[in-house]
Amino acid sequence: MTADKALEQRMRKMYLSESPQKVENLRALLADWAGKPDDVEVFQAFERAIHNLVGSGASFGIPRITEAATAFEKFLDWFKAKRLTLNPQRLAVMQEAIQEIDSIFIGERTGLPVELSSCRILTLFKKSTQ
Amino acid sequence: MAWRICLVDDDSDILTLVSATLAGEEFELITLSDPTTALEGIQRAQPDLVILDIEMPRKSGLELCSEIREKPEFRQMPIVFLTSRSEPKLKVKGMEKGAIEYIMKPFRISDLLLRIRAVLAVAGNWKGGAG
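The joint structure predicted for all components is written out below.
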């Protein structure tokens, strides 16, 4: 095994070991936003957490996290552009999307196949913007 | 003598990954997670290369890039963006602000290393003898 490959595997393992905290952080930030839907800074904190997953997911060897977070980020763009507002239905969609991100992490940690994919997140988000 | 590199990124995962990638005798990496105080850190470090994220809280990498370029001592220093923002307009803006390379996240460790070495090979000796 090359040094780069060994480093990639070590980094991937470390990233996955911290993934439960990442998911909990997403849930907490979304709850903050739900509590203060008009607070721009609270929204930006949540958006940034999703944005960071876009960059880190595949960098740590988990491209499905980047795909899911990219779809999530595009959905959040609608809120940033003030074309959508937060309502209970959209909140539920995002909670479900975070659950899917958690499922991807669990699947990668355990090596077990996970039925859900980021495509489902995309579908959810599309429905929620119609 | 190791190349001294400053990395400014608010994402602790990326700081960890790049630190691990550049660990060794070839590079000395200084990580800065707060863009509002990063300029002071860069001035203290006097690096051979600065790597900036673009989307950061309170101050963007583009703003920080402009501030760095305003300092006479850093006019020639190579600046590289490391970002997940892929919009072509943003890339152009980054280059206009004075960056010489634009690396996309996500990245592969081996690719990042190659790109950094390439930038340093071309522009790393701006101080006249580093490296």
